[in-house]
Amino acid sequence: MPGAAALGLAGPRFVVRYHLTGPEGAARALAEELRYEQTVEVHQEVVPPGPIREHLVGRLEGFQRLPSGVFEAALSFAIETVGSELPQLLNVLFGNASLNPGVRVARIEPPPEGFEGLPGPRFGRAGLRALLGAPDRPLLCSALKPMGLPAKDLATMAYQLALGGMDLIKDDHGLADQRFSPFEERVARCAEAVGKANRESGRRSLYAANVTAPSGHILRRAHSAKAAGAGAVVISPGLAGWDAVRELAGEAGPALPVLCHPALLGTFVADPRHGIAHAVLFGQLPRLAGADAMIFPTFGGRFAFSPEDCRAIVEGTGEPLGPCRPIFPVAGGGIRLERLGELREFYGRDVVLLIGSWLRLAGPDLIANCRRFYRAVTGADPD
Amino acid sequence: MPGAAALGLAGPRFVVRYHLTGPEGAARALAEELRYEQTVEVHQEVVPPGPIREHLVGRLEGFQRLPSGVFEAALSFAIETVGSELPQLLNVLFGNASLNPGVRVARIEPPPEGFEGLPGPRFGRAGLRALLGAPDRPLLCSALKPMGLPAKDLATMAYQLALGGMDLIKDDHGLADQRFSPFEERVARCAEAVGKANRESGRRSLYAANVTAPSGHILRRAHSAKAAGAGAVVISPGLAGWDAVRELAGEAGPALPVLCHPALLGTFVADPRHGIAHAVLFGQLPRLAGADAMIFPTFGGRFAFSPEDCRAIVEGTGEPLGPCRPIFPVAGGGIRLERLGELREFYGRDVVLLIGSWLRLAGPDLIANCRRFYRAVTGADPD
Q1: Alpha-carbon distance B26 to nearest alpha carbon in chain A (angstroms)
Q2: pLDDT tens per residue, range A38-64
């Protein structure tokens, strides 16, 4: 058998904390099983003695009962199991484990230098603030919808949202390349509209084009959006794959801020005994992939996330994570204007608040509604 | 407002059956909400009157209480909401709905002509049988592992598995491009080894190279694998995104059978009240994406799927689905040799049985173990 050096096993290890539900004996047995399941994926009797058994098989570094009654198993894995590829990091993290009941990924602890090929967000909180010229207030976002509106109507909406003071104006995640508003035309018109509003207002609102698309089209659409004047891109990793985020944020991408939308991701957090914890799914994973902001459904909206879930997400977007910069949590999903005070209090300043429908239900004048939103959040007028 | 024709709303509609958990009133309200949530994604008061409201908003075509007590809502959607892109089909299917508790996608009913751009599997059951020269028996599969073995040892294993009569010899899904067995070297050696075994045996075993990789590398690796002599590819859509399957199966792909691995997908079926039903996740979705075979963890192995779950998966791989051919269910996940009779009985002939570790634990001679496996499943010797 080759030695550890020949296997390239000289690198550091990273830790994944799993929460395991069940009686202690079963939880311990499952923790032992995950050492194999997430790496060599063979029965332990089949693992050859030597460096594969000693280094590549996961190590159980800690096992404890938490106050909630759940057991936490801290497993460490050789960085070489991942190589330099995000899909394989996801595999070691939760690939086969996702097929076991009662397993939840509670935290990822990368080595200080992080994972090869995953430097994290290009902009992060500070970079996005610098682009927007908004050094210390909460940021504001709205979405262009409903699907079915022609591009020129979406562009009018984008213009009004920008004039009203929205920092980020994003395509709804359901605007793809349908014939009622084809990608190229929509993006060109909306980018132009936001640019016009910026020239009139003197502000720097960013239009985020949705580039969620078939695999071969994502980068092309992102570059085309940038050429048309878009200031950011939005993508749904649940629909397009997490690696698409890395691709957009990386060297081959358009060098624009990347927003992530949670479409299709909800199942991972739906059962507290299974899946991927809120802090990981909406905080650590998008950062590892290179997103600059992650949208999630806040408490007080139309989805079922609790204040504790949201607190965990905020932590995941900001706490230390190897070399990855902190990113913005984007709280959305049915925010009503009358709840803004409470949300403002809860989230503090390092947040993006995303309002869709309720900005339009508040009255016939969209610009006036935006200004009301802005004032409620920042305590000042956008001008 | 533009008319329905201008919106391109002349096409057919497709139906999604959702299973909703809860009291009837709440289930009905949720069904109504999904009409908007999965399409226009705005509060219904914001939807402009006319064709968007009449055609693009989902329609509730049926609502009934099932014997299990769950409510089934049949929603129809205009084909134009999807356009011709798989990520957007996933979005209409379960994008925001995944963020709601108590919603499960139970079935997709495409129009007879299917979805634009999604013709389904290139080979399907019949095509794969023709390639293998195995017109009517169950097929056999094993995997190359553990990770950490150098390419030459994996190739030796591939040679023995092919000589022993395995139809499909696949890379373990955790073999990516790590330095201990880089993709190019591994694939070249394993393809060569299976080719050598085929020349000696006169059979037509296929080596399936794992092409789960960062976005820009998947097609390139697939073509490189084909050039090296690989007869199939394997990909994990949970890790790489479902659209990567479509890309591999489509015109730009290598024209090889595509196997899918379930890594990271387990969460979607973990809670029977939420997510995506087994028949959809392991049957309909892979077919729509173009896979020719879908691996899942069978009952009687080390994961928690029930016989009913497995029966549903088999149905999903074979029942009518627009223009999509039937594909092979690949039952794996800890199959022991002594359970083969039961599994053979349960699955019948249109199945691939995948054995990993237990083929090696059965004795020191891997070729002899394969032949025992072959005999137990087919009642004959491989020669």
Answers
A1: 14
A2: 999 999 999 999 999 999 999 999 999
A133: how many CB neighbours lie within 10 A of its CB? 10
CB B369 within 8 A of CB B363: yes
The answer to whether the beta carbons of residues B281 and B265 sit under 8 Å apart is yes
Task: State the Cα–Cα distance between residues A33 and A44, nearest whole angstrom.
Answer: 9
Half-sphere exposure of residue B143: CA atoms within 13 angstroms, side-chain side:
30
The torsion of the CA quartet B269, B270, B271, B275, rounded to 10 degrees, works out to -30
pLDDT band at A248 (very low <50, low <70, confident <90, very high): very high
Lowest-confidence range among A183-192, B8-17, B49-58? Answer: B8-17
- Report CB contact under 8 Å: A8, B267: no
CB contact under 8 Å between B361 and A239, yes or no, is: no
**Which one, of B207, B189, B211, lies nearest residue B198 by Cα?**
B207
Does the distance separating the beta carbons of B43 and A361 come in below 8 Å?
A: yes
Per-residue model confidence (pLDDT) at position A3: 65
Give the gap in angstroms from C-alpha B150 to the nearest C-alpha of chain A.
8
pLDDT digits (tens, 9 = 90+) for B166-210: 999 999 999 999 999 899 999 999 999 999 999 999 999 999 999
Q: In what order do the strands lie in the sheet with A103-109?
A: A59-65, A71-78, A13-20, A103-109, A275-276
In 3-state terms chain B splits into helix, strand, coil percentages (rounded to 5) of: 45, 20, 40
Chain A residues with beta carbon closer than 8 angstroms to that of B214: 85-87, 243, 246-247
| Residue A180 falls in which region: left (phi positive, over 0), alpha (psi -120 to 50) or beta | alpha
Distances (CA, A) of A9 to A82, A110, B166, B212: 12, 16, 32, 22
A56 in contact with B at a CB cutoff of 8 Å? yes
**What is the predicted ipTM?**
0.97
Q: Residues B141, B164: contact at Cβ < 8 Å?
A: no
Mean pLDDT of A231-246: 98
Find out whether A172 and A147 touch, Cβ atoms under 8 Å: yes
Mutate to test the interface with B, among A98, A296, A305, A313 (most CBs of B within 10 A): A98
pLDDT at position A1 is: 46
Report pLDDT digits (tens) over A275-292: 999 999 999 999 999 999
Q: Do A180 and B80 touch (CB under 8 A)?
A: yes
B214 touches chain A (CB under 8 A): yes
Task: Nearest chain A residue to B117 by CA: give it.
Answer: A214
In this prediction, residue B164 has a pLDDT band, given cuts at 50, 70 and 90, of very high
What is the structure's pLDDT at B1?
A: 45
DSSP B324: P
- In tens, the pLDDT along B321-359 reads 999 999 999 999 989 888 899 999 999 999 999 998 889
Distance from CA of A250 to the nearest CA of B (A): 12
Q: Among B40, B173, B236, whose Cβ lies nearest the Cβ of A147?
A: B40
